[in-house]
Amino acid sequence: xxxxxxxxxxxxxxxxxxxxxxxxxxxxxxxxxxxxxxxxxxxxxxxxxxxxxxxxxxxxxxxxxxxxxxxxxxxxxxxxxxxxxxxxxxxxxxxxxxxxxxxxxxxxxxxxxxxxxxxxxxxxxxxxxxxxxxxxxxxxxxxxxxxxxxxxxxxxxxxxxxxxxxxxxxxxxxxxxxxxxxxxxxxxxxxxxxxxxxxxxxxxxxxxxxxxxxxxxxxxxxxxxxxxxxxxxxxxxxxxxxxxxxxxxxxxxxxxxxxxxxxxxxxxxxxxxxxxxxxxxxxxxxxxxxxxxxxxxxxxxxxxx
Length: 305
Prior knowledge:
Blueprint: E1 2-4, H1 12-40, H2 43-68, H3 83-112, H4 119-146, H5 148-177, H6 182-209, H7 219-227, E2 234-244, E3 247-255, H8 264-279, E4 283-289
Parallel strand pairs: 3-4
Antiparallel strand pairs: 1-4, 2-3
Helix pairs in contact: 1-2, 1-4, 2-3, 2-5, 2-6, 3-5, 3-6, 4-5, 5-6
């Protein structure tokens, strides 16, 4: 049996610094926006503040997970702490869904009984929120493309930038029409946006926690690619999962017939090259079986050479 693992270096220091700055800035703004929201009696602004609060939690969890998952493996945790990032993404997306329910309930009450709001305070505060969240989203977009945990936090910020824009539109409509119904209406749109932004991350996080195949990897295609290698007569017991965000792993049995043991390393190198280059799978555990597939345990693919 052969085990293969390759570590991908990255800009850990830069990412950690960006997350730290974003967390502090968001935390300070949450306090200011909540105060203005309550004083101006704006549900949309309070909702945006609460959304920003979940953003702050998301960034704290992302920062903690980013550092924890890079701790070295131990004898009791042989895979290390990579799953910390997946767990953080799951918690982040779950809090967004729970927060949305609160927004919908409050908005329904306001639609039945509209209340006066300070549209100028809404306009100014939401404008600052939009600028802050847009800046943080842009600064983390590259890291989010590689890491599910950071992507979840970035989606929080993107979702709040959109909700801030909705608050701005609502404030302008209130000032133009004099009707405060635009405030809870904007809250409903914010809630819908939150659900849309969090669903994809929640689904992927649940899939990874349940040891599902990471999105973007087709097990059938992986099997066919391995079976196409000269000297491989079949592939079975193939499993693909993820140790953490963007860290897919694979284990399988390869039927190699009567191959000399000294040739096994060259064959293994070909398999790992295909896994790494085509599917970005750098962690693999492969067992060679120097026999043909049994009738009661057929290979998933049997290639004819």
